[in-house]
Amino acid sequence: MTTAQLADSAVSFGPAVALSCRECGARIPLGPHYVCVECFGPLEIAYDFHQPGRPAVTRELIESGPASIWRYAPLLPVPADVAAKPNLNPGWTRLVHARNLGRELGLRKLHIKDDTGNPTHSFKDRVVAIALEAARTFGFTTLSCSSTGNLAGAVCAAAARAGLRACVFIPAGLEQAKIVMAAVYGGELIAIDGTYDEVNRFCSELIGDEAGEGWGFVNVNLRPYYAEGSKTLAYEIAEQLGWKLPEQIVIPIASGSQLTKIDKGFKELIALGLVEDRPYKVFGAQANGCSPVSAAFKAGHDVVQPVRPDTIAKSLAIGNPADGPYVLDIARRTGGAVEDVTDAEVVDAIRLLARTEGVFAETAGGVTVGVLRKLVETGKLDPDAETVVINSGDGLKTLDAVADAGVTATIKPSLAAFHAARG
Amino acid sequence: MTTAQLADSAVSFGPAVALSCRECGARIPLGPHYVCVECFGPLEIAYDFHQPGRPAVTRELIESGPASIWRYAPLLPVPADVAAKPNLNPGWTRLVHARNLGRELGLRKLHIKDDTGNPTHSFKDRVVAIALEAARTFGFTTLSCSSTGNLAGAVCAAAARAGLRACVFIPAGLEQAKIVMAAVYGGELIAIDGTYDEVNRFCSELIGDEAGEGWGFVNVNLRPYYAEGSKTLAYEIAEQLGWKLPEQIVIPIASGSQLTKIDKGFKELIALGLVEDRPYKVFGAQANGCSPVSAAFKAGHDVVQPVRPDTIAKSLAIGNPADGPYVLDIARRTGGAVEDVTDAEVVDAIRLLARTEGVFAETAGGVTVGVLRKLVETGKLDPDAETVVINSGDGLKTLDAVADAGVTATIKPSLAAFHAARG
């Protein structure tokens, strides 16, 4: 990028002022970068919410905004007019007061943040919307990603609407629904013989290749922007609770980015005086078959030992989670924990959530609700504290997990047949 | 019901004051009835929006309400506190400004009302929410329906959340996703060897049987309440357009109820002074393999000749549509039309919508967008008029229609393999 382009970019990123290294704190101008040149640490967005000429961010300002993540535009690395550009306008999903599930588990105040209402039915629409805007600003013409499935669909849908090309990469062997829901939007969908971690490494290589020129990989070279999208989960939860933070929150862990950004969002709300400063505990959820962060937490380690995933929760099957160490920090700092459940417990939890609240989660949601249950049973959650659990994706994308749910009986259209079938 | 219960009911139904026969105009008190005892015509809800003691329904009142159909509670047969009772809080879904699709079709101002954002990803959550509230008021303990798939899921999810039993009836041979998405909520799901019309007849029989006592069939004995839920599509479209009616609207036809209630909603908004009184044209969409209303429209008939459905658009596969004659009336009165498309055109339209707007519709949405295209091509739609098309359900529920959408290539994780695969 030229200097003039960089100056334009500064205007385009709203309250964001720089990229900052999460490890050494070094700052560089906003650009399509994701690794610190000083120490190779990950870069994230730094903000100045009190720049002269920008309106103060108040509850009223937010409440007067659109029913999408763009109500929080003043807290995101996007221009003020972002909602006017073609995108999927995700967010502002339901916060479900889960009285039935709470009763079964013994939690007095439980809410489910149900992100299945997003345009492609997972929380990934949030992060992609921010990355798309950055891609436009940087002049990228192809939107790309490495994905465990949901992200591929979100990227292809967003690119279709924005008029960008899409070329996305997934591990071979994903659920059919996730494949179709990416391919149907007309982009290129390339399966890689290998795990997600191998797909991810391949994408990093591709960025350095001539073929990757002009490509915005939402979760690689646009990752600092992309990751900020998860903050909107924190903002929405707080606003929907009546501008207060939950006391406990249970969050699925894939790369760990969602968890770290929800924590960042809560801290921003406190710093801006939008919510009362009160303690909250952050809990992470993994599937037993891909639980490197949970294992490190339990062992008291600061580093995460990569694993080769083997679980039905494919959208959480990241064996080498980039934000694993930060997740450990946050869980320990807030007094939370990281826990894991077996695939059988995942399936049980999907059914439990559906039966009690009418919410049909994908396997990732089963992991999170399963861990919620385990945390209650092992006394790690306070049953009287206000608790939120994230449902990040949709049951329609992982039907195989509950494929034995079928018709009770097949009968002829007669009362006699009906009575006979019911015994 | 006792007289006391009926009096309570009157309080519970907000602005609704009676059931009124659509044919002869006879009125009876609000109750779980659906057929006129005078003439056997269908009953619908009659309102008095100007009852003493009720607040005037203004734009401001509505805009200050929740981001769900309950913002329109003052226009629905529900109590004022309906949002506080356990339900799925559907509605307030996206109105997508479809610039890309409009450009391809030659329509200058096109919007998609995308109802896939509802909790079970179809517009059926709207109608079920109203029926659920009526079921509670009438003391029903089992929620039931005859369904082509989407309704079964919506009923089972709503019943789960409300703590009612569910027992729903579907024709055998539905899509796997629709079966699982009903069964997972834990109710009884009974498949009937026969068409939807046979399922529907069976349910009418069951209401008269001892086994059906205490059962609320949302689209049979609760139908007058249920049907009103579709009015919320009209309200939302008008509000999201900035409190004005579209000039043209294209709506899928199954029973025809959605179309007739959108028309009713528009007329109410005009009568209440919430929008300017300007003409609008209503267009209906059917699949060629189940097009009795389209056939009657084209032949100039007032009655609809039942057919045996044969189409991939199973959620529209009602061969004997109850509201068919009313649909014909509305299409003719407003200067609209009813049109149908082949299954191949349905698949093309699903892909067109996905590729241009990032919206993945089920086959019913394919029918509606396919008809939209046909209406433009045949000159029946004004390309300069503000046009809305309804997307009533989700592509994830009818994956088979686009099952050939798959990965572009499967490769080893290397740049060499990538370049080789792309040629």
Automatic annotation (TrEMBL), chains A, B:
Pfam families tied to this protein: PALP
EC identifiers of the protein: 4.2.3.1
GO molecular function, one term: L-serine ammonia-lyase activity
UniProtKB keywords: Lyase, Pyridoxal phosphate
Cofactor(s) essential for the protein: pyridoxal 5'-phosphate
CDD domains the record matches: Thr-synth_1 (cd01563)
Domain Tryptophan synthase beta chain-like PALP: 90-393
Location of N6-(pyridoxal phosphate)lysine modifications: K124
InterPro entries, sorted: Ser/Thr_Dehydratase (IPR050147), Thr_synthase-like (IPR004450), TrpB-like_PALP (IPR001926), TrpB-like_PALP_sf (IPR036052)
A Gene Ontology biological process term: isoleucine biosynthetic process
Family the UniProt entry places it in: Belongs to the threonine synthase family.
Entry protein name: Threonine synthase
Species annotation: Actinospica acidithermotolerans
